[in-house]
Amino acid sequence: MGSTSDVYSVLKGQLKDTEAEVLTPDNAGYAESIERWSEHCEKKAQAVVKATSAQEISTTLNFARTNKIPFVVRGGGHSTSGSSSIDDGFVIDLSKMRKVTVDPSAKTITAEGGTTWEDVDVEAAKYKLATVGGTVNHTGVGGLTLGGGYGYLTGRYGLTIDNLISVDIVLASGELVTASSTSHADLFWAVRGAGQNFGVVTTFTFQGHDQPDPVFAGTLVFLPDKLPQIVEYANKFHTTNDGNQALLWGFSCPPPANAPVILTQCFYNGPEVKGKEFFADLINLGPIANMASMIPYEKLNSLLNQSAGFDGRKQFGGGAFKLPLNPAFVQSLHQDFLDFVNSHERMNESLLLFETIPYKKVGEVPNEAMAFSNRGDYYNVATCFKWFDPALDREVKEFSRGLLKRASQTAGVVQDENVRSVEGVGVYGNYANNDAAASEIYGSNAKKLEELKHRYDPDNLFSRSLRLVPRPLVVVN
């Protein structure tokens, strides 16, 4: 094999009559192409291939296989696991593939692989439709969907993957196939939860749902002394919601004051009077800020964007919790969180979040129905730590894991890493790091996934996300 530049000049030649771009470090636009939502995940790729079609991706995969060059795929670039970045190979960048089409008669929404949830929400709203998307709208559709997908509409319609009808996917062989319940059904089973391991999805087709009216939603901010009452409200929410609501609540020290607060994000899919009535106990606690109001649905997933900006290093982590919670237990978690954040500079925007999204609809689908294995009688708890000093990377990761292990004790599913609940693994794959064991994320589905991996990607080309089989050793000259 020749030099790195010679190798990628071959790829440029293979794509010369297409609209794809192959950017190497000496090209304009390269620096921007390796930027990620988390600076923690930025790596200096040998090249970035900005594809615009499935055929261009097929050509690129054939090039990677022939030359034994590792690669990753970038959708929205929002992951904190680093799975969309690489320093010993190249990136297949889907950011030019952002077309969304809606079939109003079938109520389906088809999104290309590089779309964000803002693209989907805005286009679907033109037809008074919506589907289950993320809670931050600059998140990529691909990453969130392939890992499962929780959103404000989950209580009513289930996970994003429960609303996925089909995908068009380019396999490791370069072949383009459509996977659905009636075509390549085994691949469709795998894609819903472990899709990053099986190919490059160029289009997703979702079931849309009628969403003609605005929703009541927004953030209420409280001083920490209200935490016990907020926990009690979350306990009440568990028994009083009917699936048309969601409650996200947690701890942070956001600007401009950088002082400890309790944040609650309310959602009610209905009129304002009903929303205020449902959340009356919270509203009557006297928040220091109340931003809840009626908004168009397509604006809903933008409400948390300000707290999810693109600067700094970030690390997701996930676990599970059950309600009811003991307020004293949550206060002890809050104190541990504050002690850590306050003992480090510029970590005030970090967050511990209890995602109280109704799961009854999620639980109607068995864990064996698809690769995703986090269905159970519990909610997700998440950390998103934000910092700026690279020297803190390991310390942050270890503290996050310890805090989540404590927070997850009430669920009884993550107390011992060798023992998992039969109802679900208690770990959301999109919050996991790439060093997690397949059994930790996929439970009893891991064995079947390994078998399918050998069938659809026998050379393990797609090896940079959660690993289903050992990663190959590849040396690039």
TrEMBL record:
Keywords: FAD, Flavoprotein, Oxidoreductase. The keyword Flavoprotein applies. Its cofactor is FAD. Residues 41-211 form the FAD-binding PCMH-type domain. Signal peptide: none annotated. It comes from the Eukaryota. GO terms for molecular function: FAD binding; oxidoreductase activity. Pfam families: BBE, FAD_binding_4. Belongs to the oxygen-dependent FAD-linked oxidoreductase family. This is FAD-binding domain-containing protein. The lineage of its organism: Eukaryota, Fungi, Dikarya, Ascomycota, Pezizomycotina.
